[in-house]
Design goal:
Blueprint lengths: L21 E4 L13 H12 L3 E6 L5 H11 L8 E4 H10 L4 E6 L13 E3 L7 E4 L14 H9 L4 E3 L5 E4 L2 E4 L1 H10 L4 E3 L5 H15 L8 E5 L2 H11 L2 E5 L16 H11 L5 E3 L5
Parallel strand pairs: 1-2, 1-11, 2-3, 4-5, 4-6, 6-7, 7-10, 11-12, 12-13
Antiparallel strand pairs: 8-9
Organism: Bauldia litoralis
GO molecular function: phosphatase activity
Protein name: HAD-superfamily class IIA hydrolase, TIGR01459
Length: about 290
Amino acid sequence: MSNSIHPPRIGGLSDIAADYQFVLCDAWGVIHNGVKAYTAAVDALRAFRESGKTVLIITNAPRPKASVLKQFTGFGVDHAAFDDVVTSGGAARDFLAARPGIRVFHLGAERDHGVYEGLDVVQSTEDEAEIISCTGLFDDKTETPDDYADAFLRWRDLGLPLLCANPDKVVERGHEMVWCAGAMAERYASVGGETIILGKPHRPIYETAMARFAELAGGPVDKGSILAIGDAVETDLRGANDFGLDVLFVTAGIHADVFGAREEPDGDKVAAFLAEAGIGARAFIPHLTW
């Protein structure tokens, strides 16, 4: 099986599940909306697992796994729907852990400070820091990247690299779009700032996922046996395509407005959207269901 810019519309994951032993599923936009779980999506993953197969959640959440699991519980995401979670925040932790004593200026909300728990890092002012660790905006309810225009120039002139712990540019929280660390990294790069990006669509987080699949399977895993599931073209779909994985495109997520009716997307519009992005999918579905 392979990805195509003219993927078929399927009725549920069960239509293609027999072709795969492993699922690598996005979180925000597929199994929850940042407020509550999508019950049918969670049920679909649980059904896949109950057939003797393996599910990993791969998320650009800028937090370690324990924090994401706690968040899932609050949203009503049944932990029986997956075997483990790989996070962008975890990849950022690995990066910082390899540089003990590094002086970090945290750019993001107070709730994201758990990413540093147990690490040998020194929280610093921007004037004393060696790196900006960006988990998002200080206040994503009221701010936009435009509010940081002067700061970006100041940090660039200080020679500070920006470690982006969440490559997503925007996400849907409930029914509102909020800015994420990926948008901050994009703007910083646009003024000549150095950026370091580890999550989707970049290779390191997929290599981490492959290693975890191999641990769970007790041996090497073929990429052809993995189906990636996601809703964001520049992170989920591009990352899966570049890594050589088939992908199921959930169209009622972040790009829903592009495809006409949210519940019954126009297949021609889906194909045109994928063609413009130069990205393919094995199939598409409005919401993940079994």
